[in-house]
Structure formats: structure tokens, C-alpha cells
Amino acid sequence: MVEKKTGVPTSEQRLIFGGKQLENSKKLGDYPLLKHNATVFLILRLPGGADRISLEERHTPMDPGLQYSVDDPCMICFTHPNDEDQIYTARRLPLVMPCPGGHSVMHPHCFMQYCQNEIFDNKKEAICCPQCQTEWSLDIIKKYGVATEEEIEIFADGMSVNVIHNDPDVTECPGCLSYCERRSKKDIRMHCRICAKQGKNCEFCWHCKLNWKTRGTKECGNTNCKAVDILAQIKAAPLKRVVGVLCPSIRLCPYCGTAIQHAHSCKHMMCSTCKCEFCFICLRPARDGSWQCGRYNTKCVPAPRQEKVPTRKIIN
């Protein structure tokens, strides 16, 4: 029944009861504690978008309209066409990316890796040249990255989601998961029309996403809701120089929303709550143990003051 409704096959479904996964070979009657009114949690295994992007080496396309680099190395893998230990053919030459300065050089597969990192790690709404910020369209990504239609669709969906999530005035209704946009930045008591039509509780707090409990419009009545105070701290936090770059002295962890104040030393942080590692200046997370914005004392572009408390799941 679940497969017919969701399209997810039985092999990709998990049933959890009492903190344990139920075995496929057993029946419900084999679990004495599993009574008629017991709660069983269903988990669906879903494919992640980024995992469907192949980062295997791709042949450089042969096109008279493209420019190839025979002197400068790829800026992602740093492989130089003249390296003696590399056997270079025309199919392995890096491409000069289309921007006014022509200063970005990448292999097709390295370009795809760069796009993936920008969209799914750095939550960028568009792919731009890392040097001059010239925006590259999906057509350019397809051509220079030798991307498939499915890969372009994954990138397009990822950028669309980032546009929504990066908008401080857009959030998800906790009831129906529809995206909502508030009319005024002062509104925190939200009324979901879709939930109302379905006869559900349709009022929730903009910050903590819990049901609204009071009659007023300023405080939701949930004891754990501290978002208003946190955002006030972020707004009032003075600027501070971190490795020579001016940025707010208080940041929210980009994953769990914990407030972190910079005390001293380098720009790289580890959140004590979720163990997420990120840069205090640009808010980019570490990827596979590497920093995307350079060394601990390298200057990078500061992210603006945060206007919405991140609500992503805590990393294990």
C-alpha cells in the first residue's frame, strides 16, 4: 500500500518500533510488545540529489567555439597540461571558462564538482565564476560540464530550493510543508490557509515552527522559543575583525542555529551542539575535512547578517 502511494519500493522502506528496525522476514505477530494501538514509524530511503552527479573524469568536448588551456592548470585539481606524469590529449585539456577575463580554467568533471559544491554545500542560488562572479547559465553548465539532462535538472532544482531557503521571509508550514511568505517582517504569528482548508490547526510561530498558543501576536507561548531574542542579538552584534575581515561578532550555526560568539584566533569554528565545522566569516561548511574558503588565516567574503534561524537537522 505504501509503495502504491509513494512509489518507493518495499526494499527501500524501514519500519521502526521501540528504537529497533523490524525484520522483513518476520510478521507483526512475532513482536509481542507491538499491540494494536502501538506507534510504528515508517522511514523511506530516498536518493540524494548530489549523489546522482557523477564526478568521474569526462572527456573535454571538441567544439570550435570553446577555448582550451595549454598553459594554465585546472583551478580545481591543479593538474597542469605540461606535467610530465600526465598523458595529455585534446580530450583531457582543461577549458577556459566563459567570463570577461578568461581566468577560470577547469576540466569538465572539475567544473561539475565546483557546481555541486556551490549548490548543495554553499547553498548558492546561481553558479558564478569564482574570480569575477560572472553568472553561468544552465546551458553553459551543460556545455562545459558535459552534463546530462538529469544532472541539469538536479542542479536547477537545487538552485530553486536555495532561492526559497535563503529568503528570510519564506519558511515551511510545519503542518503541510507548504512554503509560506510573510507579508511583513514584523509578522511572527502565521496562518496557513492550506491547513485551514483541511481542517487542521493552521497557526504557528514563524521562528520556532510550533503551534501558536497565546491570543497575542508577539509571543507564541512556547517556552523553548528563543528565536526572537537570538535574532535581536544577531542584529545588535557589533562588527569585529576576524583575520582582517569585518563581520558580525555573533553568528548562528548554519545547521542547527546555535548562537556562537567569536572570541579570538582563527575564523574556523566547530559548533558545540551539532559538531558542524564552518567558517565564521563566509559561513561555508567544511567538506570532507577540507575548508572551501582557504586556510585558517585566509581572507574570504563575509556572509551578511543572518535574518532567519537555521532549522536544519543536527548532524550525528
From TrEMBL:
Gene3D superfamilies: 1.20.120.1750, Phosphatidylinositol 3-kinase Catalytic Subunit, Chain A, domain 1 (3.10.20.90). GO terms for biological process: positive regulation of metabolic process. Residues 70-304 form the RING-type domain. Keywords: Metal-binding, Phosphoprotein, Repeat, Transferase, Ubl conjugation pathway, Zinc, Zinc-finger. It comes from the Eukaryota. InterPro entries: TRIAD_supradom (IPR044066), Ubiquitin-like_dom (IPR000626), Ubiquitin-like_domsf (IPR029071). It comes from Amphimedon queenslandica. This is Uncharacterized protein. Residues 1-48 form the Ubiquitin-like domain. Pathway: Protein modification; protein ubiquitination. One of its GO terms (molecular function) is zinc ion binding.
